Amino acid sequence: MNDVRWLNPDELQAWKKFVAVVELLPGVLDSQLQRDAELSHFEYFVLAMLSEAPEQTLRMTGLASATNATLPRLSHVVSRLEKRGFIERTACFEDRRATNAQLTVAGFEKVVETAPGHVTTVRENVIDPLTPEDIADLDRIMGRILGTIDPEHRFNPSALGETQPTA
Amino acid sequence: MNDVRWLNPDELQAWKKFVAVVELLPGVLDSQLQRDAELSHFEYFVLAMLSEAPEQTLRMTGLASATNATLPRLSHVVSRLEKRGFIERTACFEDRRATNAQLTVAGFEKVVETAPGHVTTVRENVIDPLTPEDIADLDRIMGRILGTIDPEHRFNPSALGETQPTA
DNA sequence: AGCCCTTGGTTGTAGCGTCAAGTATTTGGT
DNA sequence: ACCAAATACTTGACGCTACAACCAAGGGCT
């Protein structure tokens, strides 16, 4: 029965800090965006992913992958953003089951004006406290964890090397 | 106006992976605990922190710190766990404003029987994909981030070197 | 003492996410 | 050609969290 491999002290210490960050970071990102743009971090992320897509358009499933979200969650969020005039839903011609989500002009402007404040927050709270080696280590470690918790490879590691206002 | 320091390619790549993990990991932890113990990860964390405390008792504020939670959130969660018989609230004699949360026997047993499955999940998804160097790097990096996003030092880095079923 | 500010905690409400169910279309098998 | 299964998405209900408002008790100050 007791073949459980408990965490050793080093593992436990790292895990506790990691859990704390996972618990606290979303609040930090959300509150800045909520205060400055009345957007949750996830809403911003949806708009940002669309802003980088060709024609500012993505199918719902593709957008869900790009934002690490479930389809129901995305559907609700897109509905809200549609009501606020940032996104439009259009039918997909190749597959009539599918729905395209397209950024409106107002939505694109929203991303452009929101991005600087968001990037600044990310820098202050995550990037700038780290050295270049830390960044490389973080990338490697998160890549390894993603390899296990994202077995379907929903996460798309293809889009690299951008200086655009993704985040 | 445009004094924004955008993320360079390395920073952007690491940030995207980090965000994906922060978005996906809670779901992984929650679903295992929900399935096997009908507990959210946060509920489990509350019980686990109490199980390690002297007398299995902590004041609400202390428990909120230990679990990186706000007081209203904790209050609601403790109410639920109290209804399920895992926690009891008792008055605090030194400060009559305060409330003590104490683990019941049933609550302690719940932690004991739930811990192995949880630790296994943590191992499989986070710890085991990493090398010992990765663990050290993760600890260092999360410590640096915590230093900025947790300025009031709610997070308590004192309790180290345990092999107990914290996680 | 009397006042005010702070601290500790609870409660209500509103908003977001998850889960389950449902619809529409496409695909694959026969 | 037909039917079952899979895919793409939406919807509704329920549960949890954040925020704000609130109450009670302590600590300082005069």
Structure characterization notes:
The structure is a homodimer of 167-residue chains. Chain A is mainly alpha-helical. Chain A has one domain (24-160): Winged helix-like DNA-binding domain superfamily/Winged helix DNA-binding domain (Arc Repressor Mutant, subunit A, Orthogonal Bundle), CATH 1.10.10. In chain A, 61% of the residues lie in helices and 8% in strands. A three-stranded antiparallel β-sheet of chain A has the order 1-3-2. In chain A, helix 1 runs antiparallel to helix 5 (105-127). Chain A is globular and about 55 Å long. Mean pLDDT of chain A is 90; it is low at 156-167.
Shape of chain A: globular
Biggest interface goes to: A-B, 69 and 69 residues
Radius of gyration of chain A: 18 Å
CATH topology of chain A: Arc Repressor Mutant, subunit A
Highest-level CATH class of chain A: Mainly Alpha
| Amino- and carboxy-terminal Cα gap of chain A | 47 Å
**Spatial strand order of the main sheet of chain A:** 1-3-2
Structural class of chain A: mainly alpha
What is the H/E string of chain A?
HHEHHEEHH
Mean pLDDT of chain A, as a whole number?
90
- CATH architecture classification of chain A: Orthogonal Bundle
Low-confidence segments of chain A, ≥5 residues, pLDDT <50?
A: 156-167
What is the number of domains of chain A? 1
| Beta-strand content estimate of chain A | 5-15%
Q: How would you name the CATH homologous superfamily of chain A? A: Winged helix-like DNA-binding domain superfamily/Winged helix DNA-binding domain
Could you tell me the number of beta strands of chain A?
A: 3
Q: Please tally the helical runs of chain A, counting DSSP H or I stretches of 4 or more residues.
A: 6
Characterize the largest beta sheet of chain A: strand count, sense, and whether it forms a barrel: 3 strands, antiparallel
The percent range for helix content of chain A is: 55-70%
Oligomer: homodimer
